[in-house]
Specification:
The protein has 486 residues and is α+β, with helices and mostly antiparallel strands. The chain folds into 2 domains: 29-232 and 411-476, no CATH class; 237-397, no CATH class. It contains 19 helices and 13 strands. The chain has helices at 29-42, 60-68, 76-83, 87-92, 95-102, 148-165, 170-192, 196-201, 206-212, 219-233, 237-244, 264-267, 273-288, 293-299, 348-351, 359-370, 412-433, 436-443, 448-476; strands at residues 111-114, 123-127, 133-137, 144-147, 204-205, 245-248, 251-254, 261-263, 303-310, 321-327, 334-342, 379-384, 390-397. A hairpin with a 6-residue loop joins β10 and β11. The protein starts with 28 loop residues before the first helix and ends in a 10-residue tail after the last helix.
């Protein structure tokens, strides 16, 4: 008997829609080397010595006033006061001014993820999740894609300015400046010869660097470095808990120290405590969703206890920054988070708008791309303030073994050693995001780039002093209000 014939109904496949995707070119090593050498012919390394600000250079004070428009008005005078301490502190707050100046210079065309504010105080030590002490860039508020040399110039110029503040001679400063750029160049050449994974896993272990520096650093310098590391190791949530909180009616509260630290209930008088706490819990809950799943689970073990506004840094003063006290298993298990407002990068007017939906996401993505080991609680969220304005915030631990250099205590030898360390850290960050092989080919094996950067740095230090004097004059004629000593 012949089995019956069966018919199976078929459905025509749905037409495919074209998906938008980025095509990543995979050039050979030889092609990448050729790309770097072609860029060198187009923009010779010696051109990086030039500072082409042009006759129509924007008024530097007007640029600072422009930034102040979106900041907390009563905090802006503190920013000016901190910038007026010295030309070096002025430089720390003048990232927008320098970005404007660099926009007129020749560009190599070799782009990386820029720090955007790579001065020497934005490097430092901190603990990795594995509790190793590493050295890296530690500030990414201005991060954005752009030509690699912009970060190198901002870093090197900070050494020239810091050296002047410390009274170092031209010769002493020159040695430090050449150390910065030579370290960047030779490190980039080293990274160019590594595999992709080897570059990605590279971190600057502080213990190894201290050991390696024994042959070049004096006993006094090593002793001071070890003391700084010991101090950094004590900076954690427990230390912040002891320093920044006290008991009020049996509950832990952040100590009020206006205008530098102000509990949230003092700022938003008239709002009920329950309403404030509800908003804060919502913020932390939403931010948690941007964390890796295991870290999200860990954060869920903590409860929000108190929040205060805290003035931080120099260039960031006036942006909204909050410290959030959380407690875990009991009152001896604290976690301090910092929620910092994320505004548009100072680079965006000159390099193009960010591709991210929020500035806080831009910062977090840039930090993950550039840092070897980012904070485990690094995440972001957008909130609507009492004034109805939506603002972006990124969050991370307030303190986790973090430490920065005491530049004012450095002698010329220490500044030079520190320049070597910063140059290598910057090269490693750029090697992760840019074409390290093309950049290494562009830089070459001679010191031509190093000398040009050293020349540029001294020229820019002169410009920075003129801009500092302009802020001094702006205070004298009442154009800006200044609060000193805070």
């Amino acid at each position: 008997m012949t089995p019956p014939t069966t018919t199976t109904a078929t459905t025509a496949p749905a037409p495919r829609t074209k998906s938008k995707r980025t095509v990543v070119p995979h050039l050979t090593v030889e092609e990448r080397v050729a790309r770097g050498k072609a860029a060198r012919r187009e923009v010779p390394r010696t051109t990086h010595a030039d500072l082409n600000t042009g006759v129509a250079r924007p008024d530097p004070i007007a640029l600072l006033e422009q930034q102040a428009e979106s900041r907390v008005p009563e905090l802006v005078p503190i920013r000016y006061g901190r910038m007026l301490v010295s030309p070096f502190t002025f430089y720390r707050g003048a990232a927008l001014i320098m970005a404007s100046d660099l926009s007129g210079s020749a560009r190599s065309g070799l782009n990386v993820q820029l720090c955007g504010d790579a001065h020497l105080m934005n490097f430092g030590v901190f603990n990795t999740p594995e509790r190793r002490m590493v050295f890296d860039i530690n500030d990414f508020d201005e991060t954005a894609p752009g030509p690699f040399e912009w970060d190198v110039k901002r870093l090197a110029a900070s050494f020239a300015i810091a050296g002047r503040d410390n009274g170092f001679s031209t010769k002493e400063r020159r040695k430090a400046l050449l150390a910065v750029s030579e370290s960047y160049r030779t490190s980039m050449a080293e990274f160019a010869g590594m595999t992709n994974l080897a570059v990605w896993y590279t971190a600057l272990d502080v213990a190894n660097f201290v050991e390696q520096s024994k042959s070049t650093a004096s006993a006094k310098v090593r002793k001071r470095a070890e003391a700084s590391l010991d101090k950094a190791r004590t900076k954690d949530s427990l230390q912040a808990f002891a320093k920044l909180t006290h008991l009020v009616n049996g509950e832990r509260r952040i100590i009020s120290d206006p205008p530098l630290i102000e509990p949230i209930e003092d700022i938003f008088a008239g709002r009920t405590r329950d309403e404030l706490e509800s908003n804060l819990h919502e913020l932390v809950a939403r931010y948690r969703q941007t964390l890796q799943s295991d870290r999200r689970h860990l954060l869920e073990e903590f409860r929000v206890v108190h929040v205060a506004r805290k003035v931080v840094g120099v260039g960031s003063v006036g942006t909204r920054a909050w410290i959030i006290l959380l407690l875990g298993r009991d009152d001896s298990d604290p976690l301090f988070l910092q929620a910092k407002e994320a505004q548009p990068s100072v680079l965006e007017s000159f390099t193009g708008a960010s591709r991210f939906k929020s500035n806080s996401q831009r910062i977090v993505a840039g930090q993950h791309l550039m840092q070897a080991n980012s904070d485990i609680f690094l995440g972001y969220e957008t909130v609507t303030g009492d004034d109805g304005v939506k603002r972006d915030f990124y969050l991370r631990q307030l303190r986790d073994g973090k430490g920065s250099a005491s530049v004012e205590l450095m002698d010329p030898t220490t500044l030079t050693l520190y320049g070597t360390l910063c140059g290598r850290a910057l090269a490693r960050a750029h090697a992760r995001s840019g074409d390290r092989i093309a950049i290494a080919a562009y830089l070459g094996n001679t010191d031509r780039f190093d000398q040009a950067i050293a020349d540029f740095s001294e020229t820019y230090a002169d410009q920075n002093e003129r801009d500092y004097d302009a802020l001094v004059a702006a205070e004298a004629d009442g154009r800006v209000s200044v609060l000193r000593g805070l």
